[in-house]
Amino acid sequence: MATTASRVLGFARDVLTASLLGTGPAADAFIVAFRIPNLVRRVLGEGGLHAGLVPVERAVARRDGEAAARRFAGEALASFALALVAVTALFQIAAPLVVAVMAPGFADGPEAATAVLCLRLSFPLVVGASIASLASALLVAQGRFGWASWSPVVVNALLVALLAALDDLAGDDLDRAAAILAGGSALAGLVQAAIVLPPLMRSVRAPILARPRFSPDVKRLLALAGPGLIVVASTQLAVLIALQVASDLPGAVSRLHYADRVAQLPLGFVASALGIVALPEFARNAARSASLSAAVDRSLSLAFLVGLPAAAGLALLAEPVASVLFQRGSFTAADAAGTATALAAMAAGLPFAVVVRVMSSVFFARETPRPALAATAAGLLAVFAAAMLLREPFGIGGIALAVGIGAAVQCAVLAAALVSARHWRPGRKPALDLARCAVATAVMAFALDAGLARAAVWLADDAGTMPRIAALAALCFGGAAVYAAAAVVTGALRPSALRRKSAPLA
């Protein structure tokens, strides 16, 4: 429930931002500046530190007792906080250089100054979001999920309220509106940290103000969490590369950003949840190759079950989704068309991105993160190469497609590494489940295509806001119902497996 509420509010925030800033220079400047702190926030919010912090904290408790675990928690929090403050100060000084590297197309244009200001105002978000994620991971280790789950909901609600008031605060000055939004985002991150720290202190009595100490256990945490953060961030890093390539195309940065935000909805729900659920399953079977391979098969089947229809649905509904959700205020019909083009191209990479989360979890379960890091590097190189090659002939659509190509390369490298390390023996089950999901997805696509033709009059620009929203919702829920029925008929979805207690991945 908390994840759903947070995602919905976060998406409402994006819709309001699009309405306020559109896709002009102020929007491009804000998006480029906010990309790094937002990347950190999203990666940490998807459990990027949990894979490192929780096992180490529990290992210290088993080895030296709960008091030592509390000391470690305090050391980790204090050490990370001190390091993050230093990094924030560095970014304040180097903001012009960072903007020049991230968006070389801005050069000395008006966007550059606005982007520098927004980066300086928004970067303290990194401190608040990181401390909040560490505290949330420690709460999760104690079996307390409430505060950790609901704190992002409060933060997104505050940002939605700020956006609703920005028309009065900034008037017609979009640069001023972007700066206020950047500062408000940083403040929201600090509020999130303030929400989760008190219950942590009550729960584990962690000495939050402990003296920072780079102890062996903190070093072990960094060794495990660092690679995990990079791999979890691979999709966002790919989009960051695409934005850099597109930075000198008018409006392309904003359109890519909003397309990515829509594509992240299914990926955020499915891929991150699947990775968190799959990691303990892989860890339990890490020493038994046959059981580990079977666990990978089950996870891949679930990835196909949700990844294929999500990709097909977004590709088919890209135009009405972009138009209905974003086309208002400063966001024009041309902006919606460009966003739809980018979204349809990005959708092709969704199934690969979901599978990447499954396969990379195997290596972290076995505490051998190097293959996952190598696959991430290969995928990012592929994104840059493909974006440069496809930019001229296909424009924003080619750059967006490059993100999916990178995910496919990353997936292929991970699969080869799993087979080579004998962690996975590809069998018939994943191939059969893939075929069943593909058939069910084709049935859904046929139904959606027919539904689009019938709903065209309700989706037209002059049909009114509520009829358009209702028509889009009917297509989404109708497509989901058709897919579920087709999946049951083909055997891709087996209700008996979902009811079985021994199927944790279901």
Task: Describe the protein.
It is a single chain. The chain is an all-alpha fold and 506 residues long. It has a domain at 1-225. 84% of the residues lie in helices and 0% in strands. The protein is built from 20 helices and no strands. The protein has helices at 2-21, 25-45, 50-64, 66-102, 110-122, 124-141, 146-170, 174-204, 216-232, 234-245, 252-284, 289-316, 318-326, 333-347, 350-365, 370-394, 396-420, 428-459, 465-490, 495-499. Helix 4 (66-102) packs antiparallel against helix 5 (110-122), helix 7 (146-170) runs antiparallel to helix 8 (174-204) and helix 13 (318-326) runs antiparallel to helix 19. The chain is globular, with a radius of gyration of 23 Å. The two termini are 18 Å apart.
Q: Nearest-angstrom radius of gyration? A: 23 Å
Residues in helix, %: over 70%
Mean pLDDT: 81
Number of strands: 0
Oligomeric state of the chains present here = single chain
How large is the share of residues in beta strands?
under 5%
Contiguous helical run count = 20
* Largest β sheet strand count, sense and barrel closure: none
**Unreliable spans:** 500-506
Task: Give the helices and strands as they follow along the chain.
Answer: HHHHHHHHHHHHHHHHHHHH
How does the helix and strand content classify structurally? mainly alpha
Q: Determine the N-to-C terminus distance.
A: 18 Å
